[in-house]
Design goal:
- The protein is mainly beta.
- 8% of the residues lie in helices and 29% in strands.
- The strands form 4 sheets. It has a 7-stranded mixed β-barrel with strand order 12-19-16-17-14-13-20. The chain has a 6-stranded antiparallel beta sheet with strand order 7-6-9-4-1-11, with no helix packed on it. Strands 2-3-10-5-8 form a 5-stranded antiparallel beta sheet, covered by helices on one side.
- A hairpin with a 7-residue loop joins strand 16 and strand 17.
- The longest helix has 11 residues.
- It is elongated and about 60 Å long.
Amino acid sequence: MTDRALAVVRAGALTTVQDAGRPGHAHLGVPRSGALDRAAADLVNRLVGNPPAAAVLETTLDGCAVRPRSTVTVAVAGAPCRVTVDGCPVAWGAPVRVPAGALLDVGPAVSGVRAYLGVSGGIAVEPVLGSRSTDLLSGLGPAPLAAGTVLPLGRPSGVHARVDVAPQPAPPVELLLRVTLGPRDGWFTPEAVHAFLSRAYRVSSASNRIGLRTEGPALERARPGELASEGMVLGAVQVPPDGRPVVFLADHPTTGGYPVIAVVRAADLPAAAQAVPGTPVRFVAVRRRQGLSFGPASTA
């Protein structure tokens, strides 16, 4: 049995293995997946000396606890939280040495939703379609962590960063999402489009890795019926029959039949990953792309 491994002691509400995802497989019905807050995942890899593609752990709300079988360097970023080694507080947002057999505990989020745990060498579960990411929609990749799970680690390939703490954006107090209108904004009344761009929504507690669901004014259709299924992209704002917008995140379906009123800029999606239920959400139009198409050839 290799000593390059992590044993899961406390799995938390939802802790998954994530990396940069598996884009380019939408034509096979496979979502992109990958870390929802890519900036935080990239940061913990830099802090422990991993390449950007190394897999990390993504926790949800209440963290996790693991025990390495060999001495490792770790870093925790994303949602601010208390981090301890054998009960002693250690730095958040900086590299930390954890001895073999010690208990590393990533505590509940103080603010935000998702914390990221990077480990020197990366999480070395078997890749599927080029990625080690857990995909909750399709079931590809490793299952969400459970107590007793043992995760193999790769060999360290770099030197950890020499920093006391790395600067990170705070979780949003208000989530501002810049959007490009279309391709199906014409399916909604002018009043509905105005409401979408001027009224405040809130993050719903029903949000997950598939999509950020909202609560707020329902958007009225200008035309009846349903679309034939068409390709969906990361950041698409789909409007289901209840009229409340849903922003598609990393595990989103690759096709859908509800109209997409707009698409969120990719740079704004990491903040969406850290928006707690009840956070105000505003959609801000930046431009309309002419000829935008969501045909079957679109990638997710």
